[in-house]
Amino acid sequence: MNKTNQELYYERTPVLETERLILRPLTPDDAETAFIWHSDPRVNKFMSYPLYTDISQTVRWITEIVPVEEDIHWGIVLKESNKVVGMIAVFDIQNARMGDIGYRIHPEYWNMGITTEALKEVVRFIFENTEIERLNGRADVRNVASNKVMEKCGFIKEGTIRQGKMVSVYCDYNIYGMLREDYAKIN
Predict the structure, then answer these.
(1) Under 8 Å CB-to-CB from 143, ≥6 apart: which residues?
(2) CA pair distance 114, 29, nearest whole angstrom
(3) φ and ψ at 135, to 5 degrees?
(4) pLDDT tens readout for residues 108-139
(5) E strand or H helix at 26, and its extent?
(6) For helices 114-129 and 144-152, what crossing angle results, to 10°?
(7) In the β-sheet with 83-94, what is the strand arrangement from edge to edge?
(8) Stretch (H or E) spanning 22
(9) For 17-48, how does the pLDDT look when each residue is reduced to its tens digit (9 = 90+)?
(10) CB atoms within 10 A of CB 13
(11) Single pTM value for the model
């Protein structure tokens, strides 16, 4: 019996846990909350993704787009409320050797250390449980919070791309990297 894309997504996305968070696969039940960060211009200010205008777009993203990608997408769930407040992903994985990191979080939960906590756990998982040797991060130079998250998690700023294309807009953005050996030095 062939497995559905949704079943394969659940299998390749392990549940991770931190002091305050559970990182788990997204489900259709998460669509209402996920729609908030997909449709909020504050969340997408520096990301250049099109804003969702209808919850059906979020349902489609969770049920049709996320499951067929080779990426690993986690919902960021607060243990105390069991509420999905954001997402974090390792994407564009190349030859099981290198991948990019990305995250989004509901504005109500900004400046609480949630993204940093989630990213540290994903980095730990990747370098302790996969063959990936390098993680990449990018952040618009104006997105001070995202730059700080990567630096707090041990990513090394490798340079700034001036007026480069990031997703669908041209802007100045910082490039961050972390190698398995960098991770080993800080842990």
Answers:
(1) 45, 46
(2) 21
(3) -115, 140
(4) 999 999 999 999 999 999 999 999 999 999 99
(5) none
(6) 40
(7) 16-17, 21-24, 72-78, 83-94, 98-105, 134-140, 169-179, 156-166
(8) strand 21-24
(9) 999 999 999 999 999 999 988 898 888 888 76
(10) 20
(11) 0.93
